[in-house]
Amino acid sequence: MISVLVVDDDFMVVRIHERFVERTEGFRVAGSARTGASALSLAAELAPDLVLLDVHLPDMSGLDVLAGLRAAGSEAGVIMVTAERSADAVRTALHGGAMQYLVKPFEYADLASRLNQVAAALGVLGSGEADQELIGQVFGTSPVSAGPAPLPKGLSPETAGLVLAALRGTEELSAAEAAEQVGLSRVSARRYLEHFVGTGAAEVRLQYGSAGRPERRYRVSVA
Q1: 72 phi and psi, to 5 degrees?
Q2: Per-domain boundaries in the chain
Q3: Which of the chain's ends, N or C, has fewer CB atoms near its CB within 10 Å?
Q4: What does the alpha-carbon distance between residue 128 and residue 61 come to, in Å, rounded to a whole number?
């Protein structure tokens, strides 16, 4: 079970992220913090495996918290979860050792995908020496598993292949567009597409219109 420290200055956002973590198999919430100082203190006390870290905190930048974690010797994985989109922030997070960078707003499937990617990377590491293949798995230059991820109950390999072919045949598409191409209901098409997002085979972005909920647009992950 991977323990997670949730760090965000917004009380409601903390609760939402906590629910997302608890909803994801193999993860549990170890604690939460709303300031950088509290995050560093709790990280030292709880020694979490993973930190969900916002950039905009009331007392210091989350990027400074990341640097503080590393300076203190923390080996916790870090996923930046923030509305900050600047290239400088992303570059600093990367150089500071963040494993993922997720931009708000997002939906549960987006965070679950990142959590599972981090879990897969952490899971292949044991003790002793690591060969190049293992190192490649951790850093994303080779697949963690040679075989395809198992399909959730109710999804068929044949239909999954059709949906994936539709996804590969266009720059990006929505669940409704995939449903029309494959001959599925929109709900069923979205289940397959979200499965591919969860396994890392696909990426999703939110397209905002003038009104209503944003549309989820899917595309094949860039290797």
Answers
A1: -85, 0
A2: 2-123, 150-220
A3: C
A4: 35
User: Mean of the per-residue pLDDT values for the chain?
Assistant: 85
Q: Which fold has domain 150-220?
A: Arc Repressor Mutant, subunit A (1.10.10)
* Domain at 2-123: CATH code: 3.40.50.2300
Query: For tokens 């539709």, what's the residue?
Result: 166
The SS3 assignment for 194 reads helix
**What is the rounded CA–CA span in Å between residue 202 and residue 178?**
13
Q: Would you say 39 and 67 are in contact if contact means Cβ atoms under 8 Å apart?
A: no
Q: In terms of residues, how long is the chain?
A: 223
Joined tokens for residue 179: 């449903």
| Digit-coded pLDDT (tens) for 191-213 | 999 888 888 888 988 888 766 67
Confidence of residue 148 (pLDDT cuts 50, 70, 90): low
Can you tell me the distance from the alpha carbon of 176 to that of 94, in angstroms, rounded to the nearest whole number? 35
| 89 phi/psi in degrees, rounded to 5 | -65, -45
Distance CA 35, CA 29 (A): 17
Q: Which residue has the higher pLDDT, 124 or 45?
A: 45
Name the H helices within 72-148. 87-96, 108-123, 132-138
